[in-house]
Design goal:
The protein has about 775 residues and is of the alpha/beta class. Among the domains are: about 100 residues, no CATH class; about 70 residues, no CATH class; about 210 residues, Anaerobic Ribonucleotide-triphosphate Reductase Large Chain. Helices cover about 45% and strands about 15% of the residues. The chain is built from 30 helices and 32 strands. Its EC number is 1.17.4.2. Keywords: ATP-binding, Coiled coil, Nucleotide-binding, Oxidoreductase. InterPro entries: ATP-cone_dom (IPR005144), NrdD (IPR012833).
């Protein structure tokens, strides 16, 4: 036996071979190694031997590697250097073994913040078979290619996203586009997330920049990618990406319907389960006291908001609550309404850190279809609703007073959207109508639904920016307008159709029908997805909870809507005139939207589903379409687009079938144009009356309301601009540059963006440009 001393290590050799006893040898090893993180630790021969055994090395090879390694190591050698030495030694004796060692030891995959594991190409094979449905031969071929590429890389460690990216590149190289489509990873670049954290987004003026919204925006992007890659076929996704159509609420497409009109009676009769089951939250008995009834009304909208993508509305709000305020003083009723309004404006709990996008529809008197219906209080029937008309009117009066006072600083309440139903007897309630118009003159808060027109039906309600339900589906006003809503609307880019038709009427309608078919397919896909979420996966329990053996949400009555943007610009390009410029232009515009409505009516017969046409609010879509068309159809777009051509983000199309916002016409002329489209757009419509007056005359406004009510305008609002001084708190009318009270230039400015009041600083660039362009009417 020959004893050799190497680097102060007592290593025993028997001839040329080493007698391995790692435990004994480890005790004698004195030198340190430097790890990748810079830390120093004692060299562990046992780990090396274990890794060689894991590679399949026999004892003879292990002896040779350790023997040669011990001659080359030195104090404070790096772990990478040791691995390279081991690899070079192994290559002399067994190349296959050396490559296996390199894969297992040098190719490390980072699986978490502190954990690494050897690269294993079999995981690629399994992932391709499981996720992309690849056959085994193809999966192995791709995995071998990826392994060869990875061995060429000079990286300290691999990550799962990095490996997946290389797999996807190989799939593309070999022409497996569909496999790549299914195998791709969803997410955001680091740069984009940094920008969201720093600057946020301005797609929704109701959403502020805060930690909750940042998380929502990141999650939204992943879900949007999923929807376009997995939920919708390529031809639909491509149409959206190109800007032929717009798929709204893509982040919620696989999981949520849009908006809903609520009925408070089931909750007043059976109690409230905000999770829909009562298993995860506390369950309330039916409200006995008016304070609790008010809280439940607010919580119904709050709970439904977690299951839905869009706005929440309570129809017949003052009717349902009327029995609860019987024998209460007006001051008490007003306090209750103040509680409700503050709840909706301070429940900062909706998606991404925002208040609930809420609406309430109210009546001047009990409508005929509800007069003989049992009134509900605390789980019991207490007569019929026609007995509580006085209480319903006191609730309405109290709401008007609360909304007129504004918040503690005197600012207008931004929610709920306050929607007045004008039935045939509306103007007989003279005092109430005067109060409503005083509120319109001060803040522009009320919206008006015109139920005096024959085409409107027995009951009509609106919610959010304009979404509409009418009792013209089955003829039952309760089933058609309560406990249901809009499942989804998707929007068609009308100006682009004009560009592609190039002046040919027949071609224009051919392209329009092609776009309608794409939107129809997309809506049917979402319709089927929602059935799965509601009744198979059961992830929307608030909506599917049952009352009297029936789900609360009447999904089978929901609308599927065709939206549109830029009719005015379509006409300007196609026939050379805008909506307000000639009877021919208006007639052709009506023909276009009637074509869409006829298509929806045919689908009703074919599918048994409730199809409609809606004027898209287009808070971000009007700008998105214009920007994309400026990119792909620049010459055509230049002749019709609105905005500053030096700032592409300011470009926009006119919303739906509205006249251009700065069209040189009177309010009367605007009404004569836009009323043509309200009866056609049965899924939603609105007339915006931009009020330039700092202080309007309520009597003048009411006179205008009487005139509008005689026209085919179904829904409208008087928009009053407000400026609130951030220095002294002074509230003044108009969009001011400085405070009239203290001259401060720090002002919060409020106006109606599409169908709701919001701080102008939260608007996207295109909508801010539209605000600058608006022609204000002197009322």
């Amino acid at each position: 036996m020959i004893v050799i001393l190497i680097l102060n290590l007592n290593i025993l050799f028997c001839g040329d071979e080493m007698m391995i006893d790692s435990k004994k040898l480890n005790k004698n090893i004195k030198f340190l190694v430097i790890k990748r993180n810079g830390k120093k630790e004692k060299f562990d021969l046992f780990k090396l031997i274990k890794s060689l055994k894991n590679c399949g090395a026999e004892e003879e090879i292990i002896n040779k590697v350790v023997n040669e390694l011990m001659l080359k190591v030195y104090d404070e050698i790096t772990t990478d250097e040791i691995k390279n030495i081991v690899y070079s030694i192994l290559r002399k004796y067994n190349r296959e073994l050396a490559e296996k060692y390199k894969r297992g030891v040098i190719l490390k995959v980072r699986t978490s913040e502190k954990e690494f594991e050897p690269f294993n190409k079999e995981k690629i094979v399994k992932a391709l078979i499981r996720e992309a449905k690849a056959d085994e031969e193809t999966a192995k071929r791709i995995a071998d290619e990826v392994e060869r590429e990875l061995l060429k890389l000079n990286v300290k460690y691999l990550t799962a996203p990095m490996i997946r990216e290389i797999v996807n590149v190989k799939l593309i190289e070999y022409g497996y586009e569909e496999l790549r489509h299914k195998h791709t990873r969803l997410g955001l670049p680091v740069y984009d997330i940094k920008r969201l954290i720093k600057h946020g987004l301005k797609e929704n003026a109701n959403m502020l920049h805060n930690p909750e919204s940042i998380h929502k925006w990141v999650a939204d992007e992943v879900m949007k990618q999923y929807s376009l890659l997995e939920m919708f076929p390529k031809y639909i996704a491509d149409a959206h990406i190109r800007g032929d159509i717009h798929l709204h609420d893509l982040e919620y497409a696989p999981t949520r319907p849009v908006c809903m009109q609520h009925d408070l009676r089931p909750f007043f009769k059976y109690g409230l389960k905000v999770d829909g089951t009562g298993l995860h939250t506390s369950t309330s008995k039916p409200a006995k006291h008016p304070e609790v009834a008010i809280q439940h009304a607010a919580k119904v909208m709050m709970a439904a908001q977690t299951n839905m993508a869009g706005g929440q509305s309570i129809d017949e709000f003052n009717v349902w609550l009327a029995p609860y305020v019987k024998n209460l003083s007006y001051d008490k009723i007003k306090q209750l309404m103040q509680m409700f309004v503050y709840e909706l404006n301070q429940m900062y709990v909706s998606r991404g850190g925002q208040v609930i996008f809420s609406s309430i529809n109210v009546e001047l008197e009990i409508p005929d279809y509800l007069k003989d219906k049992p009134a509900v209080v605390a789980g019991k029937e207490v007569g019929s609703y026609e007995e509580y008309e006085e209480e319903a009117q006191l609730i309405l009066k109290a709401l008007i007073d609360v909304l007129s006072e504004g918040d503690a600083l005197g600012k207008p309440f931004l929610f709920p959207n306050f929607i007045i139903k004008l039935r045939d007897n509306a103007f007989k309630h003279e005092e109430m109508m005067e109060r409503i118009h005083e509120l319109s003159a001060k803040f522009g808060t009320p919206y008006f639904v015109n139920l005096t027109r024959n085409w409107q039906g027995e009951n009509v309600n609106s919610m959010g920016c304009r979404t509409r339900l009418s009792s013209d589906w089955t003829g039952d006003p309760e089933k058609d307008t309560l406990r249901t809503g809009n499942m989804q609307w998707y929007t068609i880019n009308l100006p682009r159709i004009a560009y592609e038709a190039n002046g040919d009427d027949n071609r224009l309608f051919e392209i329009l029908e092609e776009r309608l078919r794409i939107v129809k397919d997309a809506l049917l896909i979402k319709h089927d997805e929602m059935i799965k979420r509601l009744y198979e996966d059961k992830i929307l329990p608030f909506l599917t909870q049952e009352f009297d053996g029936e789900p609360y949400y009447r999904y089978e009555y929901t609308t599927k809507a065709f939206g549109f943007v830029g009719l005015n610009e379509m006409l300007k390009y196609h026939i050379g005139e805008e909506l307000h410029e000639s009877k021919e232009a208006l007639k052709f515009g009506v023909r276009v939207i009637k074509f869409m409505r006829d298509y929806a009516e045919r689908l009703k017969e074919e599918t048994g589903l409730r199809w409609s046409v809606t004027q898209t609010p287009a808070e971000s879509t009007a700008g998105r379409f214009a920007r994309l068309d400026y990119k792909y159809y620049r010459e055509e777009t230049l002749s019709v687009v609105n905005g500053d051509l030096n700032d592409i983000n300011s470009l926009y199309y006119t919303n739906s079938s509205h006249v251009r916002v700065n069209a040189p016409i009177t309010l009367g002329e605007k009404i004569l144009v836009e009323e043509k489209f309200h009866p056609i757009c049965n899924g939603g419509h609105i007339l915006h009356v931009w009020n330039t007056e700092v202080s309007s005359d309520p009597e003048v406004l009411m006179d205008i309301t009487k005139k509008i009510a005689k026209r085919d305008i179904g829904y409208w609002a008087y928009t009053k601009n407000i400026s609130a001084c951030e220095h002294c708190g002074f509230i003044s009318g108009g969009l001011r540059e400085s405070c009239p009270n203290c001259r401060s230039k720090n002002l919060a400015k409020y106006s109606r963006i599409t169908g709701y009041l919001q701080n102008v600083s939260n608007w996207n660039r295109a909508k801010q440009e539209e605000l600058k362009d608006r022609r204000w009417f002197s009322l």
